[in-house]
């Protein structure tokens, strides 16, 4: 039986399923693995089930190591150097589909929270500073009927678009790095990123992470936002230039932002935490028990296929 390292505790049904196909070791900490830890694990196990933040770098993925599969827990895999893995003869899989609806739901929640100033309002009540209802109290942006601009129209981007169009009657515009026609709703693909940013009342980032998209949303892109617009990021933290975002929010160049991810998470800059015009969540995108269980079982299915000599269902 193949040996498997699961790099963080996972829901019990996932551990049980994994034990049916491999000899399992669970790393009993939620701190991401360092390069040295990954390198050691590569030498000691046949399979690793890595999670967000584990340093699966080129330095750690050395050719000739015992491990031949990284069965990633999650759809995003920017913490894995896929090219280095391939060069070392290591296969990589992920868990697409399982995360789509949960992440899209979080996007809509953040859209509503930032547009309607929900975080600010909750802090007001908790501080005992609310003086009661009045007609001009904490006026925000009415989201229904507005235009949403989605950057990245993959599975998650499309799920967000459906929620916005069919749920809130929003006009959908989007920017994608390749042509991506949508068949099930009216939507306009913009030819430029700046056009998408400038044309929307709410912009949602749903592009994959990785070197090609680092700081994809920079100061220039943020400058295209309308003064009343809101920005939501449920992608990866480093697709957004966090320093440029903080400066823009401090200067109130646009209305507000909702973030579930951060450039250097779990570190969140004090300047960002001090702002009232931003909603901050602790990377809750897939944080529902049934979703995390489905993700884990999908990873286990890739492990089962590998152990049986079959093609990976979700090869990267």
Counting H and I runs of at least 4 residues, what is the number of helices? 11
Major sheet, described briefly? 7 strands, parallel
Give the C-alpha Rg: 21 Å
Query: Spatial order of the strands in the main sheet?
Result: 8-7-6-9-10-11-12
- Could you report the average pLDDT, rounded to the nearest whole number? 97
The total strand number stands at 12
Q: What percent of residues adopt helix (DSSP H or I)?
A: 25-40%
Share of β-strand residues: 5-15%
Q: Return the string of H and E elements.
A: EHEHEEHEHHEHEEHEHEHEHEH
Shape: elongated
User: How does the helix and strand content classify structurally?
Assistant: alpha/beta
Low-confidence stretches: none
Distance between the termini: 24 Å
Fold and architecture overview:
By secondary structure, the chain is an alpha/beta fold. The chain has helices spanning 12-19, 35-44, 82-87, 100-115, 118-126, 155-168, 193-199, 219-223, 242-250, 270-273, 289-307; strands at residues 3-6, 23-26, 47-49, 69-71, 91-93, 147-151, 171-175, 188-189, 202-205, 230-233, 256-259, 278-280. Strands 8-7-6-9-10-11-12 form a 7-stranded parallel β-sheet, sandwiched between helices. It has a 5-stranded parallel β-sheet with strand order 2-1-3-4-5. α3 (82-87) links the parallel β4 (69-71) and β5.
């Amino acid at each position: 039986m193949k040996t498997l390292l699961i790099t963080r505790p996972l829901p019990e049904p996932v551990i049980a399923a994994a034990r049916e196909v491999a000899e399992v070791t669970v790393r009993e900490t939620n701190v991401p693995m360092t390069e040295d830890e990954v390198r050691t694990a590569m030498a000691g196990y046949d399979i690793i089930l890595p999670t967000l933040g584990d340093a699966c770098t080129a330095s750690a993925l050395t050719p000739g190591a015992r491990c031949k599969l990284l069965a990633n827990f999650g759809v995003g895999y920017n913490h894995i150097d896929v090219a280095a893995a391939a060069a070392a003869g290591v296969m990589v899989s992920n868990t697409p589909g399982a995360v789509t609806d949960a992440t899209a739901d979080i996007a809509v929640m953040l859209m509503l929270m930032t547009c309607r100033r929900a975080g600010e309002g909750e802090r007001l009540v908790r501080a005992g500073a609310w003086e009661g209802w009045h007609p001009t109290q904490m006026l925000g942006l009415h989201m229904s009927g507005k235009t949403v601009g989605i950057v990245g129209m993959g599975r998650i981007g499309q799920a967000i678009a459906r929620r916005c169009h069919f749920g809130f009657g929003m006009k959908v515009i989007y920017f994608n790095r390749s042509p991506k026609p949508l068949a099930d709703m009216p939507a306009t693909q913009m030819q430029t990123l700046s056009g998408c940013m400038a044309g929307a009342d709410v912009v949602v980032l749903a592009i994959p992470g990785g070197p090609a998209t680092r700081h994809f949303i920079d100061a220039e892109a943020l400058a295209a936002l309308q003064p009343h617009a809101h920005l939501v990021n449920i992608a990866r933290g480093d697709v957004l230039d966090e320093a440029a975002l903080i400066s823009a929010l401090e200067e109130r160049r646009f209305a507000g932002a909702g973030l579930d991810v951060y450039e250097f998470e779990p570190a969140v800059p004090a300047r960002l935490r001090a702002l009232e015009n931003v909603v901050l969540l602790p990377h809750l995108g897939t944080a529902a028990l049934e979703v995390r269980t489905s993700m884990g079982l999908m990873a286990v299915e890739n492990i089962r296929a590998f152990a049986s000599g079959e093609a990976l269902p979700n090869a990267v």
